[in-house]
Amino acid sequence: MTLRPRLVSLATALPPHRLDLASVEAFATRLFDPADSEIERLLPSFGNTGIAERRSALPLERLARPRGWRERHADFLETAPPLAERAILDCLEQADLAPDEVDALVVTCTTGFTVPSLDAQLMQRLPFRADLQRLPVFGLGCAGGALGLARAAALAQAAPGSKVLFLSLELCTQTLRPQDHSKSNIIACALFADGAAAALLSTDAEAPAPALAGWGERRWPDSLDVMGWHVEDDGLGVLFSVEIPRIARKGFAEAADAFLAGRGLARGDLDGYVLHPGGAKVLAALEQSLGLPCGRLQDEREVLRLYGNMSGPTVLFALARKLERGLTGRHLLGALGPGFTAGFVLLET
After folding, report:
1. Which keywords describe this protein according to UniProt (predicted)?
2. Which of 13, 119, 179, 343 could form a cystine bridge with 143, CB 3.0-4.6 A?
């Protein structure tokens, strides 16, 4: 009998700079020339995102000035490791474990990179064992929380009894390029935020710790231009198609059905969902796709309202909220990200 990995603990962490809607709108008005008709048309969209506040690892004045690759890399190294450390230590404290009891570390991050990788940077800060297995993953974006959790679950299942730590960290605000007045960059400014989440998985855990009963993904063909980065001289330019809500509405349920069918299940066998709140329009599209009543994804909307779209970690914030509220039964955790890809994890309590 194959042992199933369980979610032993889950912790979230936020950077220090709190930004409310008014401050973000004022920042965008200063940053982007409101005399430009396209920008003038898009600025009201900030109030329609469903986001009341968010966090940033850097103050707005540092984000407003042009930065090249050298400064961006320095900013990432300054802010990412401390945020990651807080999420990890909280997660391990919940599990009553020390860093040297962790056997493997999976890290997903798409908004910054460093060599040696972020996991190696964390080994310098925390007393992990020298033989810690490391898996840094770049490029999963908003699907990183779901797909990274899946990779960690696969490692835990392959080595029964091992303790696998998963970290999803994104500093989306640091990718802002002030000189870019494109629609995609303005919408990204309206939506994105910073945050981190850490989860510990092991087959040694027992109920009521949720079991990860399965995981998988589905990539749509000819969809490389839907979401991602294009590399520019001054940083990463956001690729953000207006087709994302339509794709979610038309294709997410089909992808979820195929994943569930592979495990002998259907949507009717689920007690609920844990979905990445990519934005108000995306959440509405997911509800339509899955045949859910409008507003059913209440926890996801509240996470979006309080923290914005933090990319990969956001679905784990939604999971943490649902666990705090007494998550029971069988739930499908899902997220959409670059590729264009849907990632799934089946949770059972």
Report:
1. Acyltransferase, Transferase
2. 343
Which helix or strand (DSSP H or E) is residue 274 part of?
A: strand 272-275
Question: What does the alpha-carbon distance between residue 334 and residue 343 come to, in Å, rounded to a whole number?
Answer: 5
Evaluate if residue 1 carries a pLDDT over 70: no
Q: What is the CA radius of gyration of the chain?
A: 19
Question: What burial letters (b/e) apply to 245-276, b meaning 16+ CB within 10 Å?
Answer: bebbbebbbebbeebbeeeebeeeebebbbbb
- What is the tens place of the pLDDT at every residue in 61-101? 999 999 999 999 999 999 999 999 999 999 999 999 999 99
Q: Which of 181, 202, 223 is the last residue of a domain?
A: 202
Residue 80 CB: number of other CB atoms within 10 A? Answer: 26
Euclidean distance between the first and the last CA atom of the chain, given in angstroms as a whole number: 19
Identity at 342, one-letter amino acid code: A
Q: What are phi and psi of 138, to 5 degrees?
A: -115, 140
Catalytic residue positions? Answer: 142
Reported as a pLDDT band with limits 50, 70 and 90, residue 183 is confident
- Which residue spans within 111-210 are E strands per DSSP? 133-137, 164-171, 194-202
**Pairwise CA distance, residues 140 & 342, whole Å:** 10
Which amino acid, one-letter code, is at 58?
A: L
Look at residue 294 and tell me if it is in a domain. yes
The residue range of the domain holding 196 is 6-202
Question: Is residue 32 one of the residues assigned to a domain?
Answer: yes
Give yes or no: residues 130 and 253 share one domain. no
The 10s digit of each residue's pLDDT in 234-245 is: 999 998 888 899
Q: Structure pTM?
A: 0.96
